[in-house]
């Protein structure tokens, strides 16, 4: 394949991936403020988060300054994201499978970062031994990531297909997602074993992309891997696999959102309460014109009399 | 046990989807381990089967669910359901929960991790119908198929095709009341997906669009409360009379003078009990009167509609009703000019007014609100009332109301009180924010249509009853008096049904009650015990 095609493919796919991911993230972020629906434990509650307590435990809490920890939620999320705390705690038999799968994703992502740095080092003509260090690390990350991810994907596929607990909830989409991501890992592993120096080839490929080198050529096994990976990247942001974005919101914006009203929220709330309601049940009394405030003014029998 | 597919929900017309077999439920410890000793489920009669919609699990929670007379009527309901779905997904009609709903609909990984967290699923012996994921996944697939562009084709291609017909709708309605909204499943979900919330949204759709809601929550719940003052039907003058009677009775029997203040303008605190407590558990409101008077607080009750009934069932099924009740409560506090509102011992009442409705109470209605456990803790440790903890020298365990604990993070105040006042306090396993729901959460405790109570005591309340018994495993028999502290009206109503059904008083000498009663029982000034194990 000629170099220019690689450029169009790679930048095109990365562009679409970023655009759709950003669009979906912004769409979630721009949803209106909702009613409070927090759920313990909330790690930012200083001194209380550990046992699930909240500032509401304080006597006359509104007279006190809220004690919020910035570190605890970060630590909570890091452990959740990288070690899958929730699954470890609640679904231990699934943990080794899904951990291998997710670790594969993290290791391959790390490998790409190291390859990017090493390609920049190549462009800037850094000393070869420095480049080597980065490529060695990238190589280890790659093989570990591809093998773990591949095994994880295969194991999860079997689990989905065979476990009577999961089977009723399967859709072809769920299988397809696993197969596609599994193909990314397995093609990556194939390229790693097939090429003499996977990391060097990867760095050169990235260098070619960055420098817009139209003479860019790569080996078949790596091409195959890159094409499958680009297909995956193109597909990813349209699916529920971008739960890495959604998870930020389910935790920070719902479970841990225990904020009392502030000025900004008050302004937003006034706008939301002024929206017309059109629910049809008789007791709601909506007509498509009355807003939330109008509807809450339902009179009691005594007042009507 | 019958294995269920998601698509089964739409099949079989009027026929029942599953049968509940009591032998398959999770076993209870002795002497409650012989299912045949208890009444079991009331089977529906032929006549009931003819008249009522009973196509789910042989249990009917809402006898008034309409049965369509012909295909055209069936279609009308299906259309209404779809229109409700659209409104649930719109900002104007559902800004209140749009973000959490969309997140929960779009990002479930179907890992089933949440299932083993659900007390109903566990109690049922892992019946597929009661999986926390069953109902939400059907709902999700209906949204994807009927609301999203290209949904019908995608549903066919991906094998996620569920038909929306009369059977689906009515089964979903019933199934939305087989959940306590306790959110234990949510806590277990690594994605943060909220199956409890989805269930509540489903209930909202039925209520706000089709006008279907259990009569105990709606017609005789929020509607009655807004009309006459209380969901119990208790009118203001009767509420005042009842409390007056309790004041006099206590004064007479103890020689300690108490009186409950009503409608005192400018008092510091507006205390809002649940009228259900005034009627069914009067020892709770009188305990508060005794304590507030002993501590010399400036406080008042309100007799304005619905200021003497703090419940807000809207939190279980309807956002408009939630807003109406909460607004009325806040308006009453504003009129009285109090510095803060304190809610009585009722979990959902505390949650509704303190957190869920917080963003509906704007401007001058945003009056400071304090939860009841913190209020009591401050009172107990204020030094204004003298206690003698030896008076509470009997085994006590604590039930954590989900709304107060898991959903509000009020965990320690009640424990500090019990550790101080009850020498034999012991925790259940699990407890605190990981507690099991009493089985009456989500409004179920007040629902008793047709044979619904049988389901509550056998299935929904099973895990809780089991862990209560296990907490007293050192004294399982009736020789020693034991106390289950359940600081919530709705939980107490559920325990009343469960204890009665299993004969917990006779078999284990086990009673339940609130926190206020335990505190009063430990007051040094009390000459004789406030708590009694004798039947009233
Ligand atoms: S709700 Fe959460 S825990 Fe349950 S199946 Fe979905 S992702 Fe898994
Ligand atoms: S909210 Fe509670 S009762 Fe309902 S599904 Fe979840 S765990 Fe079960």
Tell me briefly what this model is.
Chain A has 305 residues and is an all-alpha fold. Helices cover 64% and strands 0% of the residues of chain A.
Please report the number of helical segments of chain B.
24
Strand content of chain B: under 5%
CATH homologous superfamily caption of the largest domain in chain A: Transmembrane di-heme cytochromes, Chain C
Outline type of chain A = elongated
* Greatest interface and its participating residue counts: A-B, 83 and 100 residues
How many β strands of chain A by DSSP?
A: 0
Based on Cα principal axes, name the global outline of chain B: globular
Taking the sheet with the most strands of chain B, its summary is: 4 strands, parallel
The major sheet of chain A is characterized as: none
Q: Which structural class fits the helix and strand makeup of chain A?
A: mainly alpha
**Total number of domains of chain B:** 3
User: What is the radius of gyration of chain B computed over CA atoms, rounded to a whole number of angstroms?
Assistant: 23 Å
Question: How are the secondary structure elements laid out?
Answer:
The complex is a heterodimer of chains A (about 300) and B (about 525).
Chain A: H1 3-29, H2 71-83, H3 85-90, H4 95-123, H5 128-162, H6 172-194, H7 198-210, H8 220-235, H9 243-255, H10 263-273, H11 292-296, H12 301-304
Helix pairs in contact in A: 1-8, 4-5, 4-7, 5-6, 5-7, 6-8
Chain B: H1 46-51, H2 71-88, H3 91-94, H4 98-106, H5 119-123, H6 134-146, H7 151-158, H8 166-175, H9 184-188, H10 195-210, H11 218-228, H12 236-254, E1 269-272, H13 275-280, H14 283-294, E2 299-300, H15 314-317, H16 319-336, E3 340-343, H17 347-356, E4 369-370, H18 372-380, E5 396-398, H19 412-421, E6 425-426, H20 452-460, H21 462-471, E7 482-485, H22 489-502, H23 504-508, E8 510-513, H24 515-521
Parallel strand pairs in B: 1-2, 1-3, 3-4, 5-6, 5-7, 7-8
The structure holds iron/sulfur cluster (2 copies).
């Amino acid at each position: 394949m000629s170099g220019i095609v690689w450029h169009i493919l790679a930048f095109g796919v990365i562009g679409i991936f970023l655009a759709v991911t950003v669009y979906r993230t912004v769409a979630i972020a721009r949803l209106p403020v909702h009613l409070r629906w927090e759920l313990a434990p909330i790690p930012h509650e200083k001194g209380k988060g550990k046992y699930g307590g909240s500032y509401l435990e304080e006597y006359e809490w509104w007279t006190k300054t809220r004690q919020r920890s910035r570190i605890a939620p970060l630590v909570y999320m890091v452990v959740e994201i990288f070690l899958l705390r929730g699954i470890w705690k609640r679904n231990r038999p699934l943990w080794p499978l899904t951990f291998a799968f997710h670790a594969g994703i993290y290791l391959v992502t790390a490998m790409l970062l190291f390859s990017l740095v090493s390609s920049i080092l190549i462009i800037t003509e850094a000393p070869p031994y420095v480049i080597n260090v980065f490529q060695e690390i990238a190589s280890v990350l790659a093989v570990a990531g591809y093998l773990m991810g591949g095994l994880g994907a295969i194991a999860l596929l079997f689990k989905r297909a065979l476990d009577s607990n999961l089977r009723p909830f399967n859709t072809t989409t769920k299988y397809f997602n696993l197969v596609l991501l599994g193909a990314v890992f397995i093609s990556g592993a194939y390229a790693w074993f097939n090429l003499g120096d996977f990391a060097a080839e990867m760095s050169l490929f990235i260098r070619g992309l960055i420098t817009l080198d139209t003479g860019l050529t790569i080996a078949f096994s790596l091409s195959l891997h890159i094409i499958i990976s680009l297909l995956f990247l193109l597909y990813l942001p349209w699916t529920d696999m971008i739960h890495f974005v959604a998870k930020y919101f389910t935790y920070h914006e719902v479970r841990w959102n225990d904020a009392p009203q502030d000025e900004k929220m008050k302004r937003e709330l006034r706008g939301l309460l002024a929206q017309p309601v059109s629910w049809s049940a008789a007791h709601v009394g909506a007509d498509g014109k009355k807003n939330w405030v109008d509807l809450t003014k339902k009179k009691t029998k005594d007042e009507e009399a | 046990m019958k294995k269920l597919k998601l698509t089964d929900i739409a099949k079989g017309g009027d026929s029942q989807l599953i049968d509940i077999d009591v032998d398959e439920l999770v076993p209870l410890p002795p002497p409650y381990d012989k299912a045949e000793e208890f009444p079991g489920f009331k089977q529906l009669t032929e006549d009931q089967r003819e008249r009522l919609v009973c196509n789910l699990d042989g249990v009917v929670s809402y006898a008034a669910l309409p049965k369509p007379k012909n295909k055209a009527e069936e279609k009308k309901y299906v259309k209404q359901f779809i229109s409700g779905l659209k409104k649930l997904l719109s900002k104007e009609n559902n800004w209140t929960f749009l973000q959490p709903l969309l997140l929960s609909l779009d990002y479930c990984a179907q890992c089933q991790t949440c299932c083993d967290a659900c007390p109903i699923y566990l109690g049922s012996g892992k019946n597929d119908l009661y999986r926390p994921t069953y109902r939400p996944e059907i709902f999700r697939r209906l949204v994807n198929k009927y609301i999203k562009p290209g949904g019908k084709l995608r549903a066919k291609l991906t094998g996620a095709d569920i038909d929306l017909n009369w059977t689906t709708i009515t089964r979903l309605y019933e199934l939305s009341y087989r959940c306590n909204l306790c959110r234990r499943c949510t806590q277990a979900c690594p994605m943060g997906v909220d199956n409890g919330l989805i269930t509540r949204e489903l209930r909202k759709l039925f209520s706000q669009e089709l006008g279907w809601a259990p009569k105990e929550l709606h017609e005789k719940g929020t509607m009655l409360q807004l009309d006459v003052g209380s969901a119990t039907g208790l009118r203001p003058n009767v509420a005042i009379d009842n409390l007056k009677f309790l004041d006099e009775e206590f004064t007479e029997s103890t020689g300690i003078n108490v009186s409950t203040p009503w409608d005192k303008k400018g008092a510091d605190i507006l205390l809002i009990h649940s009228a259900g407590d005034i009627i069914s558990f009067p020892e709770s409101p009188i305990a508060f009167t005794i304590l507030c008077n002993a501590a010399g607080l400036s406080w008042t009750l309100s007799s304005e509609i619905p200021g003497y009934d703090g419940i807000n069932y809207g939190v279980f099924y309807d956002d408009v009703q939630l807003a109406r009740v909460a607004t009325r409560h806040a308006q009453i506090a504003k009129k009285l000019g109090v510095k803060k509102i304190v809610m009585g011992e009722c979990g959902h009442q505390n949650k509704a007014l303190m957190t869920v409705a917080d963003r509906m109470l704007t401007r001058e209605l945003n009056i400071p609100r304090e939860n009841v456990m913190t209020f009591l803790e401050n009172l107990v440790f204020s030094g204004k009332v003298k206690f003698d903890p030896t008076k509470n020298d009997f085994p006590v365990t604590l039930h954590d109301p989900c709304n107060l604990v898991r959903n509000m993070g009020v965990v320690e105040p009640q424990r500090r009180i019990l550790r101080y006042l009850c020498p034999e306090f012991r925790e259940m396993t699990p407890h605190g924010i990981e507690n099991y729901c009493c089985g009456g959460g989500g409004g179920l405790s007040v629902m008793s249509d047709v044979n619904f109570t049988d389901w509550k005591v056998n299935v929904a309340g099973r895990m809780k009853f089991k862990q209560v018994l296990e907490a007293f495993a050192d004294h399982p028999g009736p020789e020693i008096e034991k106390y289950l502290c359940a600081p919530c009206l709705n939980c107490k109503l559920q325990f009343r049904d469960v204890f009665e059904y299993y004969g917990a008083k006779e078999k284990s000498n086990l009673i339940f009650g609130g926190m206020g009663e335990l505190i009063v029982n430990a007051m040094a000034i009390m000459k004789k015990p406030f708590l009694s194990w004798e039947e009233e």
